[in-house]
Design goal:
single chain; 0% strand; 62 residues; rod-shaped; mainly alpha
């Protein structure tokens, strides 16, 4: 099932490999940033205490 690419085999396969590496790097960076933001959000909500569920506008009306 392997396609004969002739003299372009190395170029095509290295392009595929580079694409896979870039996609994996993007996925890793996205997951890492998501975890970091979630952790910071948890810290901020913990500091706010009771009003963690209220927005600043709601809190100022009472």
């Amino acid at each position: 099932m392997m396609v004969d690419l002739g003299q372009y085999t190395a170029v095509v396969l290295s392009a595929y490999a580079g694409t896979i590496v870039c996609l994996l790097a993007l996925i890793f960076a996205s997951v890492a940033r998501s975890r970091r933001v979630a952790r910071r959000l948890t810290e901020v909500e913990a500091r706010r205490g009771k009003g963690a569920g209220k927005s600043p506008a709601e809190g100022s009306l009472t």
